[in-house]
Amino acid sequence: MGKAPSIAALFSQQAPQGPPVPQQGPQQPDPGADPHAAEELAAQRQALGFLGYLDDGRFADSYAYTGMVIRKQLDREAFATKMQQMRGNPGVLQSRQLVDAGYTTNLPDAPPGQYVILHYHSSFAKRPDTLETVTLALSKGYWRVDGWFIK
User: Fold this and answer.
1) Residues 134, 148: contact at Cβ < 8 Å?
2) What is the pLDDT of residues 60-88, one digit of tens each?
3) How confident is the model at residue 30 (pLDDT cuts 50, 70, 90)?
4) Helices in the chain by DSSP H: which ranges?
5) In a domain, 8, yes or no
6) How does pLDDT run across 90-111, given as a tens digit for each residue?
7) Radius of gyration over alpha carbons of the chain, in Å?
8) Of 34, 16, 13, 37, which is closest to residue 134 (Cα–Cα)?
9) How many domains does the chain have?
10) Could you give the CA distance from residue 126 to residue 88 in angstroms, rounded to a whole number?
11) Which pTM was predicted?
C-alpha cells in the first residue's frame, strides 16, 4: 500500500496545457469520443455539489463530498476552517466554466485508483481570472473530492 498523498499535494494538481475550451456545466457523454466520459460526467456532478456548498459559504456541509484522503487528515471542523480560509480570499463567485475533465488511474503521491481531475475557469469578485482544480477519487461506487485548489 502506497503512502497517502498530503492535502497540499492534492490541492496543487497541475493546470491543463494549452488554451482553455469553455463548456457550460456537466455535458452529456459522447460514447464514441471518450471511453471515460461517463465517469467524468459523474465526477462533474459531484464536484458541482461540492463547489456549490463552497460558493454558498457552507464549508462544513461540503465535507459530505470529501473522500478518505481528506478525511484521514482533517475532521469536519478542521476542513471547514481550511476551506473558509482558502475559499474566502477570492470573494464571491462571478462565473465558472469547465475547461477540461481527465480520467486517470495514477496521481503523484496517491495510491492506484480511479481519479478524475477537473479544471474550471472561474471568476471571483477579488480574483477575476482563476483556475480551480478539483480532484475526485472513486470510492465504494461514489466520486468523492480528494483535492481542491485555486490559482
Assistant:
1) yes
2) 999 999 999 899 999 999 999 999 999 88
3) low
4) 7-10, 37-55, 59-62, 68-73, 76-88
5) no
6) 899 999 999 999 999 998 888 8
7) 15
8) 13
9) 1
10) 10
11) 0.77
